[in-house]
Design brief:
Layout (H helix, E strand, L loop, with lengths): L2 E4 L6 H8 L2 H6 L9 H10 L3 E6 L5 E11 L2 E8 L8 H14 L5 E7 L3 H9 L3 E11 L5 E10 L19 E2 L3 E5 L5 H8 L2 H4 L10 H16 L3 E8 L5 E11 L4 E8 L8 H15 L4 E7 L3 H9 L3 E11 L5 E10 L5
Parallel strand pairs: 4-5, 12-13
Antiparallel strand pairs: 1-2, 2-3, 3-4, 5-7, 6-7, 8-9, 9-10, 10-11, 11-12, 13-15, 14-15
Length: 350
């Protein structure tokens, strides 16, 4: 979309008030006055020397806001918001690209964004504009009550290539994977209840590499931040659904622990009602094939020695036993248990 940047004007005040009082805008700008008034908007316009109105290049309509704060020699942090009616049209990405070009022509050589992990839309803007994810600013965000939360740091240097920035784990083709019997789709916040119910089962938590979180709030946050970890290239978490009616069957994930070796690990769990129907093997094949399509050379998995059902799942999905790894897995009561390692190699590699 074609956008332009200009200085704010007093006549823009009502537009600012309407946008800033939108619940989604307020959700990610928690420190602004509540409610946000016309007087607040006029004060912002008066002192906002580094703030720009984002306007439609064809109509002049105000679509949002973007600005920067100098953070030291050659460095600036950037922030933006988009009016509700203009979201989903590429406004923020286009504005971020325009402002970055403007700042790089001046005194700046590094720009960075700090984005709440649950703000997936804003992180996608960063990717589209070529920003690279650098890490987590622990406690970098603050709420009016004084509590702190983590922020994801994305940065762009003046000599970085034009966006979008590369992703180790791209989006699924069409947003899902399916073989006509099972469908896999990304884990989202709405899946928290089903995920919690599955993970608190002793036969699931007892088989997890790490102890399953038993607190619903922790699971809700995990589901809300799953897309952020996907964008980071760390893991792709999905729910397993029956293709015919979208019935929840369980979960499966690809963990990209070894990017230098192009090796990823899969893990999965099914509800009791879904077991014994071949759903897990189908899901494992779908995730494994997708991993090979996006560049993995090896896909690995592991099971406890006595987990015969999971071993059969992996064998049905084309995995081969490689080794018995002594005391590889954490066990009950702080002990260790042996692991049977499985692997599947991309056909073109062998």
């Amino acid at each position: 979309m074609s956008v332009e940047l200009r200085m704010w004007r007093p006549e823009d005040a009502e537009t600012i008030v309407a946008a800033v009082n939108d619940p989604t805008t307020r959700r990610y700008l928690p420190m602004l006055p509540d409610p946000y008034t016309r007087e607040d908007a006029l004060d912002f316009i008066e002192r906002g020397a580094n703030e720009r109105a984002v306007i439609d290049g064809a109509t002049g309509e105000v679509l949002g806001c973007i600005g920067f704060i100098p953070r030291g020699p050659g460095v600036a942090s950037v922030g933006y918001w988009v009016s509700p009616a203009a979201r989903g049209r590429g406004v923020a990405s286009a504005a971020l690209g325009r402002l970055s070009q403007e700042l790089f022509k001046g005194e700046f050589h590094r720009l960075y964004l700090e984005i709440e992990a649950e703000n997936i839309a804003s992180q996608r803007v960063a990717v589209t504009a070529g920003f690279i994810r650098e890490g987590i600013a622990r406690g970098g965000g603050r709420r009016p009550d004084g509590s702190r939360f983590d922020m994801v740091v994305w940065a762009l240097l003046d000599d970085d290539p034009a966006g979008p920035s590369p992703r180790a784990l791209p989006d699924l083709p069409g947003g899902r994977l399916t073989d006509g019997v099972v469908t896999l789709r990304p884990l989202v916040p709405a899946d928290a209840g089903l995920t919690y119910t599955l993970r608190i089962r002793p036969d699931v938590s007892g088989r997890s590499v790490a102890a399953a979180p038993l607190d619903l709030a922790v699971v809700e946050r995990h589901c809300a931040e799953a897309a952020s970890k996907w964008l980071a290239g760390q893991r792709a978490e999905l729910t397993i659904r029956r293709a015919s009616d979208e019935e929840y069957l369980g979960e499966i994930a690809l963990f990209y622990f070894e990017p230098a070796l192009r090796e990823a690990m899969i893990g999965y769990s099914l509800t009791p009602e879904a077991r014994g129907h071949g759903y897990a093997s189908r899901a494992a094949r779908l995730v494994t094939d997708w991993g090979f399509e996006i560049g993995m050379a090896r896909m690995v998995a592991g099971t406890a020695v006595d987990n015969v059902a999971s071993q059969r799942v992996l064998e049905a999905a084309g995995y081969h036993r490689e080794a018995l790894q002594l005391a590889r897995l954490p066990g009950p009561d702080g002990g260790r248990i042996d692991n049977i390692a499985f692997a599947k190699v991309r056909p073109s590699v062998t």
